[in-house]
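ARCHIVE CARD
Drawer: 12
Card no.: 0347
Subject: one protein chain, sequence and derived structure
Cross-reference: see card 0346
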Amino acid sequence: MSTNKNYISPPIRAVRRYPTIPGFLARAVRTYGDRVALRLPVSREGRFTIQETTYRELWDFSGRLASWLSSRGVREGDRVAIVAKPSVGWAVAFFAIQRLGAVAMPLDAGLQAPEIRRLLLEAEASMLFCAPERYAELLPLKKEVAGLLDVVALEKAEGIVSLWDVLPQGVTFTDAQPDPEDLAVLMYTSGTTGDSKGVMLCHRNITANIEAMLKAIRVGPEDRALTIVPWYHIYGLTASFLAPLWVGASVTYTDDYRNLIPILQKVGATIMIGVPKLYHTLWRRLNENIQGSFLKRLLFRFYPRLLGKLIKKKLLGEQFRFFISGGAPLHPEVAGALRRLGIAIMEGYGLTETAPVLCLSEPFDPPGTVGRPLPGVQIKIADPDEEGLGEVLARGPNVMLGYYKNPKRTREVFTEDGWFRTGDLGKLDEKGRLYLYGRKKNMIMLESG
């Protein structure tokens, strides 16, 4: 691979005023109102059904919840936390928070109560939405966290107060009109160092990243996105939840790995958004199946695309288009093997601080690259060595406002001329494709994202 040590991606073009999250939802509802926005599997007694929610229903539920939040004293700019796995209630709460002009604070569903308490105190949160099974555990935080007005479960269960119990009837909510530069999401990084940071993302950061992603890949109203990435991670929130809704597609989330293929087939997914661990497991099982058959071994060696068509038809369906991987590095062998079969897979690269996607590979790029910068994003390599290797710097409308209540750390991660220091080591080839080589400070990267 030849490198260009001095390569900087093309300059950022002037763009129109970026939309806000409630503004994009309002447009989506006007355009796609009766189309299905969410298709979520619901498991009962070992079987699952698909619960469908339209764009118009999302708008109705979120407006009513925003009205209730306002009546309880939540104001524009207040932080509202969500601690749960993705669900219809999660989506309704997120959009209600945005329509009120408040700040969504998605927290990892696996966080323990003491850590949740610490983050609520730091953020001075005014409301907490949680999974019903954690309601009794987290309800005492209402007394322990000053300013916390209430704890509300996202789904119904006996003996608890749920989102669906508090929705007022017959109300008309007038949306707030936040500025694109206003804080929209406070996303705490989990990292691997135990030192979580509150990343401040404004509406522009998120909507600019969505627009850029959708310029790089073709997604439309007929697509059905299946994701295993939780929405409390920025990759899940932006790439697998908000981006499909931007263009009228539907979103399905599941963490049921065992039934992943049946769910994919049931919803007719055209796109799957996952992490490297998923694709490593998928390729291992496919390879075991191939190696167990003399005919399949021959096909893989001499006619891999034909074998790929057979696999795709049987497992994924003829409607399936491509995989997207992110959250951690995808092993080049896995990407290469899937592409050899003619199964398209794109790999993204980014950080929570960049909302998150900086680069995205094309479906059949050489294995090992995370692709070129998205439209509007600039990448350069700081102080490259003789091989062109150096720290990856980024600049663009998707780069965070800074770290919450931590101006010192914010200053440390930006250069004097405004480039964000990713902390990742990489090099750019002559075509502007980025290759990564680990962390500058040797931080651990998890293949599960």
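Annotation on reverse: The longest strand covers residues 36-44. Residues 275-439 form a domain with the Rossmann fold fold (CATH 3.40.50.12780).
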